[in-house]
Amino acid sequence: MDNKPKIVIIGAGFGGIAMAKSFKNKNVDVLLIDQHNYHNFQPLMYQVATGGLEPGSIAYPVRRIFRKYKNVNFRMAEVFSVSSQEQTLSTTAGIISYDYLIIATGSQNNFFNFEPVKDKLLTLKSIPDALNLRSFIFQNLEKAMEDTNNQPLDEILNIAIVGGGPAGIELAGALAEMKRFVIPKDFPGLDISKMNINLYEAAPKLLAVMSENASAKSELYLKQLGINVFLNAKVSDYDGVKITLADQTTFQTDTVIWTAGVKGAPINGLPKEVIVGGNRISVNEYNQVIGFKNVFAIGDVAAHLSLLNPKGLPMLAPVAQQQGKLLSKNILRQIASKPLEVFKYKDKGTMATVGRKKAVVDLPKWKFQGTFAWLVWMFIHIFSLIGFRNKFVAFLDWFSNYISYDRPLGLIIRPYKRLDKNNTDG
Amino acid sequence: MDNKPKIVIIGAGFGGIAMAKSFKNKNVDVLLIDQHNYHNFQPLMYQVATGGLEPGSIAYPVRRIFRKYKNVNFRMAEVFSVSSQEQTLSTTAGIISYDYLIIATGSQNNFFNFEPVKDKLLTLKSIPDALNLRSFIFQNLEKAMEDTNNQPLDEILNIAIVGGGPAGIELAGALAEMKRFVIPKDFPGLDISKMNINLYEAAPKLLAVMSENASAKSELYLKQLGINVFLNAKVSDYDGVKITLADQTTFQTDTVIWTAGVKGAPINGLPKEVIVGGNRISVNEYNQVIGFKNVFAIGDVAAHLSLLNPKGLPMLAPVAQQQGKLLSKNILRQIASKPLEVFKYKDKGTMATVGRKKAVVDLPKWKFQGTFAWLVWMFIHIFSLIGFRNKFVAFLDWFSNYISYDRPLGLIIRPYKRLDKNNTDG
Q1: CA–CA distance from B217 to each of A66, B160, B226, B229, B369 (Å)?
Q2: Where do the TM regions start and end (chains A, B) (predicted)?
Q3: A152 lies in a domain?
Q4: Which end of chain B is more exposed for a tag (fewer CB within 10 A), N or C?
Q5: Shortest CA distance from A386: residue in chain B
Q6: What is the pLDDT of residues B73-102, one digit of tens each?
């Protein structure tokens, strides 16, 4: 119809959403593409996995976010590849052309040396992952109640978490509270002492990106909750029923949850030389992909390698959001042939929660832990959910969990079957 | 340990739950078995399918219901068969013995002449069914937005519902409201006039079990909402893209939702002669399976054939609940060698809702329709949900739908793939 520049954003994560929002009512046509029809709030995925929140509370249909944005459209599609020469994307919804392309495809699990056994692991990168994990844990608890089951009880009940970052420690804390407050009520007669939860971290401390205080306090909190924390603990193998560490110690469990790392999830069709460490896309200080004028990358998938940040910025939601907001302005400047503004990350702090009244917060000028940190964590996370309904239901669920020491949601809606051939039951 | 009589109830539906509750603190050991770990509130399944309620609002973990029942245990298991001679069940959780057995296994879809094409149909008997339906409809809407899609738009958007009972008309009404109030907001540019919703009923009226007024009014309501209602309309074939009626008229659609009938879901191992019409188990006036003293059936799966009810009682939740409550007393009488009490169904009425301010209620002495009926319907359904959390969240979601003319939940969490080979996309 008209000749407005066509801006295509791949990925409706924190970066893609922030960027598309910043184009509201600007003289450009924006097309946002995602393989799912919803945006999800990744930091609370572990709450879905442990029955604290409903999937609907942390996910929100993308189309609803942009209902009042006349110049923003959405397409649910998977992107096969980009042809930067033709300025087109090949997708499950056909060929899509662009004037400006923004790759905001985020990250995927990095299994490192566990790549060959990844089908035996449970993960926490998506809502189906979280629901699978919830089903798997509750199925195992049901299995543990059977008299005729021929699997050793500790193999069924034990849980290993690999990775001591925020995802790993938040999940460990939530599982520990489930073990203590929920499972004994729902599974009377079950020998809960057979359930050991081990957390393995390869580095010498938990929460590597946070302060020493936060690392030490989160370790203390986990131990108080009964988690066995292993530092400098490199995992070396997993056969489906037993995880082996580099020092050859083993732990019998059919439940290994992998939170040990992520890598970029770039699209196909980019020149090989722009893919750098961590499978991320090399960008300049304006988030332009190196060698391109009209192709950009933001968020987890982008890495601006500099002397200050030789590995690029951390893979965090605020980085993606800040990059998205600035990039939309820069693209408008580029369209108007004005000079671009250099991206500078404003670190607003990081936080993680282990359990009730147990959280750690690192602000740039103030680091604190404990009950107040936990309240701050809850307030910020509820406030960050999209939509009043989701904020309210999350508040309600957490408030009721707080009062009752309970978790409301333990449905095995789709029995989870692992891909490995050992597991043939439903 | 002790010699309390062991009562085994198969099925945690309305009948099984009511019965197990009635045994609270009695001098018997109760084991409740279900293939799922939750009880679900079947009458609101269509709300999950159309994005009005979360699955977690209408389903509740069985173990939580019985937390404070010391003499009631739960086992998640599938029952393969019963051996009434040995007084045992063979199940996925091993052999389970009983002194008294209650079969409360409910009903399953009856596809009648559509049995050969059942894999091409969508159904609404379980929570996975409802989530599949929700995914399927939203996937189709996304597909309709693609320029390159090679399926005709009316085939994608049209919906056929077979069956004009409560499930069919409630679903049709909810879909009509989605079409009118939600889809145009989320899918601007989509030619919604291509979406026709046809409801086929083989009988000469809708809601066969309800009053003439209720039937006529529900038909009027559906037509007001834009549903094409076809009475005396027997469906004869479906090929995946086109449904054919007995009169050879056809309707192009890839979405056929089957709500046309149910039949009993008895367990294996019973003598053939006790399985009567509608695949139900023949019971006497005490809900004893004919020919047995200690095997009983209640609810949808049971049929007490009498001159008054030659086809047995209707397959409704209140029947199952009343039977369950009386049977627990009767079993205690039987244990105490006292005479049993004959079951008498107290009909408290039936109701169905078509849409906002459009419902029909038949009480034994008062039949009414419209806004007040709708309020009564909502009040009773919210009140019937298990747990304060579920009541509150359902109330919140419905209240917000009422204010906003919206439905909050449209996530395609697991892309639904139909079993038929035509459908290979995600």
Answers
A1: 38, 21, 14, 12, 7
A2: 371-388
A3: yes
A4: N
A5: B408
A6: 999 999 999 999 999 999 999 999 999 999
d(CA A413, CA B58): 12
Separation in Å, CA A280 to CA A305, A316, B114: 10, 14, 52
Q: Does A399 touch chain B (CB under 8 A)?
A: no
**In the numeric block, which tokens belong to residue A186?**
């729902």
> Quick one: pLDDT at residue A115?
96
Exposed, middle or buried by CB within 10 Å (0-12, 13-18, 19+), for B115? exposed
Whether the Cβ atoms of residue B116 and residue B239 lie closer than 8 Å to each other: no
Residue A87 lies in a domain: yes
Range of the domain at A12: 6-35+77-109+262-335
Helix, strand, or coil (residue B121):
coil
Contacts of B124 (CB under 8 A, 6+ apart): B45, B46, B49, B130, B133, B167, B171, B257, B258, B259
Chain A stretch 18-47, residues whose beta carbon is closer than 8 A to a beta carbon of chain B? 36-38
- Whether B212 maps to a domain, the answer reads yes
Looking at B291, B316, B335, which one is the last position of a domain? Answer: B335
Whether A191 and A322 map to the same domain: the answer is no
Longest Cα separation, chain B: 74
Domain edge (last residue) among B227, B242, B260: B260
The three-state (H, E, C) secondary structure of B56-101, written as one string = HHHEEEHHHHCCCCCCEEEEECCEEEEECCCCEEEECCEEEECCEE
* B:197-256 residues touching chain A, CB 8 A cutoff: none
Confirm whether the ipTM is greater than 0.85. Answer: yes
Residue B12 has pLDDT above 60, yes or no: yes
In a domain, B214, yes or no: yes
Count: domains in chain A: 2
Contact A128 B413 (CB under 8 A): yes
> What pLDDT digit, counting tens, does each position of A284-306 carry?
999 999 999 999 999 999 999 99
**Is B184 at the interface with chain A, CB within 8 A?**
no
Q: How far is A81 from chain B (nearest CA, A)?
A: 17
Asked if A171 and A277 sit in the same domain, the reply is no
Residue B423 banded pLDDT, cuts 50, 70, 90: very low
Same-domain pairing of B27 and B88: yes
Residue owning tokens 């489930």: A178
Per-residue model confidence (pLDDT) at position A419? 57
